[in-house]
Design a protein that fits this description.
The structure holds two protein chains of two kinds. Chain A is mostly helical. Helices cover 55% and strands 6% of the residues of chain A. In chain B, the strands form two sheets. A five-stranded parallel β-sheet of chain B has the order 2-3-4-1-5, with helices on both faces. The termini of chain B are far apart. The chains are: A mainly alpha, B alpha/beta.
């Protein structure tokens, strides 16, 4: 019952700031979040697909060329095996591979699913505990139609017969069709089973053109396959590997092209602390692109906790189907107040210079200032991205000339959004000033090319620096002027960077479109197990909605215990005991607390009953207590017996929970005693 | 008998080095084949199997030899009794199951099953024999007529390759197979071919009769070279029939190939004399080897075309030219052996990577470069692993190599103190070891020891505290020394990384996955070299942390 009521409460207000949120702010923010996240996700997935493309192409090429492009003079046909190292990427690469292979060579003459292209079979380690199961999976997965056969389903000859039949129905496709077998999580296959599988298949080729694709998560070198399989197996296969480039560079590339690209405008800009966390987590714990996607999503989710973020897309709320909140409604005043305070603070919104005029303004005017702020932020962010790209361009140019940088790309990104690249670009520009004539010419043409690619709106904004570059190019003729031009070009660039690479936090209402230095909620993604368990046991109210610490009673420490769940009570007593715990004493102290709980509930009940005068819809206690007990203050012998049993049962249950968590060690050294395993729990 | 000798001679030419064996077996086959033959070939059973194949495919051509029906079975493929029966019967009857008739086994549309037990298999054999006898003479029925002339009896032969696998996968079938003729009352011979001796797989209690033994001698150099040259001829024929303009296997080049194979054999035979391996390496090196000859020839052809003369014939280089070729490619053969024998790469890729480049021909740098890339190939790259996984692997290596008692001394103190201690404790131990006669074998030579998860985490904590603290982002919540590290090693992604490394088989879990009580135990799955590379990458002084840095 308590659970239901609290869930209802939660439904009404999924908000951390109830005093300054809109009534339906949650739905509106969810809407905005969806749009922002989908845009970001689409971009990231597109980039990941682009990263996959070369690997997929290579695999498809190898499959197509298997059995046709062989070296003459080999003693026997080798079984083509393609290993794809996919530790750093998502498993979707295999979906891409198999869909490409299915389409390959499909001329559209056949509508049947199995016709045209190669035939793909997926085998997972769990399918193959032994060779019988492995062969069965291989054959029955490939053979689509249910055979009414006398050949066993584990017989490779069945596959052969089926393949011959398929070839004869397809006619001309015979030479180009391959049976592709994808072995997922190859390291988890039993090596002995795979040895036999490869040997059997190597005897069936090339009549049955089998091609194996292995999904490896271990590195290309030291090679797992060479370390695990004997030479007799290796000599039967023709192993080719397609490693996926997995390193920090991939992450940097994705970040750069998602949040700092000239042509792409993310709805939500990533802040420096999020970038820092992302890079650290990626390098320290998991180089997986799936992990990257979840982190980005979590950043988005976290960002939309803030009530003001309803304005992310549109200041006229509720344009997309949801009910428009009435800003004149008194319930929205808290929200408007906070918005007003923010707008007023930011002197950068000029049209409301006098605070006293606010009395006359409608919410509409306030919203129009939000519009202005958005336009300002978007422009600033876009120009920042372009300036950052230009900065990288110049840096790349200088790197080729031997100039050294001590900052990594993520550091530069963080510096750019926080407006702290000053030392980097001034150093860079100092180097530009010293360029020789031929180098200068090259740089100038690079710069012109760069600005030729940006959009018209940007070119309008960056008129000054573009015209300066054009002037420099037109003036630049011989070596004599080179040093002068280089000097002024350095100055111009420096001035430009100084103007553009400024902190995004200086823009009004920046926290709607920019996560700033909000710390990333890393505990959600990577909690410390021990610490979380202890804090759960010590502060159950932070985790469970059913545990409500009563605020109305004036509690001391002992009183708080009365509101805790059984396991927490037991754990508190555990912390107070010595190295060995006498279970009986533990039980006694536990039952004392339960007695106290019961007494208090009854007392409260009595007072409630007195107030409500025995209404039929009486509220039940938090703890499990039967109605009879409440009705009769004087307990009968039977009730007492029942209560004792209940206490015992609850004790045992709580004890087992602690045992399951691993907090108790049964030594058997001392009768009725168990040992503590935790001695220094945080307070 | 002339025909028999002719056949033996033909076959011997195709399979040099097997003359004795071929004569032996074909004589047996044409007269009386023992019911159970066991052929031991420790060197190259695949080649021997192909020899037996060709003997029995051709034996029926000898006039006074009984019609022979032959089935070649690989006991790895036939890993269950049912598949074995099916395959044997289909092969002996020459029956090809087709999808159209529902992949029915021999004898086709009959409802009779011959694959559910050894008894029905024997029935199947008897029926097969009867059909084979009756098949060619449909008017004569019954055994009376068939037994009238003994030559009419078809003889059935089953060759079982990799027979040693039978005793593992189908042990119950081994005894019936050895006395198959006796059990089935059919004129059938079972030939087992294996690389291990019969004594090792012989069923106990004398359940099987002793086989007729044939041992295959290893091939000598002349035979291997002959074999490779005949393979060259086959390839050359196959290529010329497919009308490619590729000159690599032109028949004219055969003498050069003989010399080339000679050189190859002299280098490779130290490591292997398997003709298949030699052919593999030879196939990878040959295209690059003959390329200078071919380019020179195509150049001549082009010149001739310009001069409108007749195109010249492909000519072999003179003796000096051949020697120069051989000496130039000599080092690359060793490189090919190093890369191809352990299959670090495959022949096609190696051949493409090591193609002859005329630009490098003048200088010897080409060879040097190749040896460099070859050395660089097995280098250990560790940059794909996240930082925490590297530390976990180092900790696992230490936990598997150091004795558990040493942990307190190795990790129990601060960095400086530990180093001092280490040296003190190191030297007396050595002298003590020398005095006492018990020589302790280094744990690294004994293989990794198992360790519980807790120990791994404790060592990981010690490593992180000393080597990783600076690289961590600052967190003001942690003030006590070691508190931050304690928090870090308890994180869920550390456990996830351990599990993932187990899936990668960089760690081996030695307890069952579903066992809940007690900590899981692991073994380290990486070698010292990998651990060293990892340690270098995260700047951990691994040798200082090893109890016994041998």
């Amino acid at each position: 019952m308590a659970l239901e009521t609290s869930l209802e409460d939660l439904n009404q207000s999924y908000t951390l700031f109830p005093d300054r949120d809109l009534a339906n702010g949650y739905e509106l923010r969810l809407e905005a979040y969806r749009k922002a996240w989908l845009k970001c996700l689409e971009r990231v997935e597109e980039l990941i697909r682009a990263l996959h493309a070369p690997v997929v192409d290579r695999v498809v090429e190898l499959v197509n060329n298997a059995y046709t492009d062989t070296l003459p003079g080999l003693p026997y046909t080798e079984l083509p095996v393609i290993s794809v190292t996919a530790s750093g990427t998502s498993s979707s690469i295999f979906d891409e591979i198999s869909s490409r292979l299915k389409k390959e060579g499909n001329d559209g003459l056949f509508d049947d699913d199995s016709s045209g292209g190669h035939i793909i079979t997926h085998i997972f380690p769990n399918d193959c505990p032994n060779i019988t199961a492995a062969m069965k999976t291989l054959i029955t997965d490939s053979v689509k139609r249910k055979p009414t056969t006398s050949l066993a389903t584990i017989d490779i000859n069945l596959l052969q017969a089926w393949f011959d039949a398929v070839c004869s129905t397809r006619g001309s496709d015979q030479g180009s069709m391959r049976l592709v077998v994808i072995l997922h999580d190859f390291e988890q296959f039993e090596p002995l089973v795979v040895q036999d599988l490869f040997e059997i298949c190597s005897l069936a080729i090339p009549r049955v053109p089998l091609v194996f694709v292995l999904s490896l998560s271990s590195p290309p070198s030291p090679s797992y396959i060479h370390a695990t399989y004997p030479r007799s197996t290796l000599s039967r296969v023709q192993l080719r590997s397609c490693p996926f480039p997995s390193s920090q560079d991939v992450l940097h590339g994705i970040l750069l092209q998602t949040f700092f690209d000239v042509d792409f405008e993310p709805l939500l800009m990533l802040g420096s602390s999020a970038i820092d966390f992302l890079v650290d987590f990626f390098g320290r714990h998991t180089p997986s692109l799936d992990g990257l996607v979840s982190i980005l999503q979590l950043v988005h989710l976290k960002h939309f906790e803030e009530p003001l973020t309803v304005f992310l897309l549109d200041e006229r709320l509720g344009s997309s189907g949801t009910t428009e909140p009435n800003l004149s409604d008194p319930a929205s005043f808290g929200f408007l107040d906070s918005l007003f305070a923010r707008v007023h603070e930011s002197s950068l919104v000029p049209q409301f210079e006098h605070s006293f005029r606010w009395a006359d303004e409608s919410p509409g005017a306030l919203l129009s200032s939000v519009w202005t702020a958005r336009k300002a932020f978007q422009k600033r962010a876009k120009l920042l991205r372009i300036a950052f790209q230009l900065f990288l361009l110049v840096q790349r140019f200088m790197l080729l000339l031997g100039y050294k940088t001590d900052k990594t790309l993520p550091e530069l990104m963080c510096g750019a959004v926080r407006g702290r690249l000053g030392s980097s670009y001034s150093h860079l520009c100092a180097m530009v000033r010293k360029l020789r004539a031929d180098q200068l010419d090259e740089l100038l043409s690079d710069l012109r090319d760069f600005f030729a690619r940006v959009g018209d709106d940007v070119r309008k904004e960056e008129n000054e620096v573009i015209s300066r570059i054009d002037v420099a190019r037109s003036v630049f003729r011989g070596k004599d002027e080179a040093s002068n031009i280089a000097e002024s070009l350095g100055d111009w660039l420096s001035e430009y960077f100084q103007q553009r690479l400024v902190s995004l936090e200086e823009s009004p209402l920046w926290d709607i479109w920019y996560t700033g230095s909000t710390p990333f909620p890393s505990e959600l993604l990577n909690p410390s197990l021990r610490a979380s368990i202890f804090s759960g046991l010590l502060h159950p109210q932070d985790y469970s909605t059913t545990t409500v610490i009563n605020e109305d009673d004036d509690d001391d420490d002992e009183e708080i215990l009365l509101d805790m769940p059984d396991t927490s009570i037991l754990f508190q007593r555990y912390l107070e005991s010595g190295k060995m715990i006498n279970v009986y004493d533990w039980f006694e102290s536990f039952s004392v607390v339960l007695e106290a709980q019961k007494r208090r509930v009854r007392a409260r009940k009595l007072s409630e009953d007195a107030a409500v005068l025995r209404t039929p819809s009486r509220r039940k206690g938090k703890q499990r207590q039967t109605a009879e007990e409440e009705d009769s203050p004087e307990e009968s012998e039977e009730d007492l017996e029942k209560w004792k049993l209940e206490v015992q049962a609850r004790f045992i249950r709580a004890l087992h929970e602690l045992d399951y968590i691993g907090l108790i060690k049964h030594t058997g050294r001392k009768a009725d005693h168990v040992m503590r395993t935790v001695f220094d729990a945080p307070g | 008998m002339d025909d028999g000798e002719l056949l033996a001679q033909n076959l011997s030419e195709a399979h040099p080095g097997y003359t004795k064996f071929i004569t032996h077996l074909s004589t047996l086959a044409s007269t009386y084949l023992p019911p159970f033959i066991y052929i031991t070939d420790t060197n190259n059973p695949r080649v021997t199997a192909s020899v037996i194949d060709s003997i029995f495919h051709n034996i029926s051509s000898i006039p006074d030899c009984p019609p022979t029906h032959y089935a070649r079975i690989n006991s790895v493929v036939c890993f269950t009794a049912r598949v074995f029966y099916d395959t044997v019967l289909n092969a002996l009857a020459g029956w090809k199951p087709s999808w159209e008739n529902g992949c029915q086994n021999w004898p086709g549309d009959d409802a009779q099953r011959y694959n559910d037990s050894i008894d029905s298999f024997l029935h199947g054999l008897r029926r097969l024999r009867a059909e084979l006898v009756d098949g060619p003479t449909p008017n004569g029925k019954g055994k009376g007529k068939a037994s009238a002339s003994s030559t009419e009896y078809p003889s059935l032969v089953i060759l079982i390759e990799r027979a040693e696998r039978l005793s593992e996968s189908l042990p119950e079938l081994l005894v019936p197979l050895t006395r198959l003729a006796e059990l089935s009352q059919v004129d059938i011979s079972v030939i087992m071919l294996s690389s291990v001796r019969w004594e090792e797989i012989r069923p106990p209690l004398g359940a099987s009769p002793d086989p007729y033994y044939i041992d295959i001698d290893p091939l000598n150099k002349q035979d291997v070279v002959q074999r490779l040259v005949s393979a060259f001829r086959t390839t050359s024929l196959a290529l010329s029939s497919s009308n490619t303009s590729d000159m690599t296997y032109h028949p004219v080049l055969q003498p050069l190939y003989e010399q080339y194979v000679d050189m190859l054999y002299s280098i490779v035979s130290v490591y292997t004399s398997d003709p298949l391996e030699l052919q593999y390496i030879s196939a990878a090196r040959w295209p690059g080897f003959v390329k200078p000859v071919i380019t020179q020839y195509t150049e001549l052809v082009r010149q001739a075309e310009e001069e409108r003369a007749d195109p010249p014939e492909l000519e072999l280089p003179n003796a000096e030219g051949r020697l120069r070729l051989l000496s130039y490619f000599l080092p690359t053969v060793t490189a090919a052996l190093d890369a191809l024998y352990p299959r670090l790469t495959n022949a096609a890729d190696w051949a493409a990577d090591n193609d002859y480049d005329p630009g490098q021909a003048s200088s010897r740098n080409g060879g040097d470069d190749r040896s460099k890339t070859k050395k660089g190939q097995p280098s250990i790259k560790v940059d794909h692993l996240p930082r925490m996984s590297k530390f976990i692997l180092i900790a696992a290596f230490l936990a598997s190599t150091n004795p558990p008692k040493s942990d307190m001394r190795m990790f129990g103190r601060g960095a400086e103190e530990r180093k001092k201690r280490r040296r003190k404790s190191g030297s007396p131990k050595k002298s003590g070891g020398a005095q006492t006669s018990v020589i302790k074998v280094s744990q690294r030579l004994l293989g990794p020891a198992t360790f519980p998860l807790d120990r791994l985490l404790a060592i990981l904590g010690a490593l992180l505290e000393e080597n990783d603290f600076e690289s961590r982002p600052h967190d003001p919540r942690f003030e006590l020394p070691g508190e931050y590290t304690d928090m870090e090693i308890g994180r869920i992604h550390v456990y996830a990384a351990i599990t993932e490394l187990t899936f990668m088989r960089a760690l081996h879990r030695t307890t069952a996955m579903d066992k809940l009580d007690g900590p899981p135990t692991f073994k380290c799955g990486i070698s010292y070299e990998v651990a060293l590379a990892l340690a270098r990458d995260v700047e951990v002084a691994l040798n200082d942390l090893l109890w016994d840095p041998a």
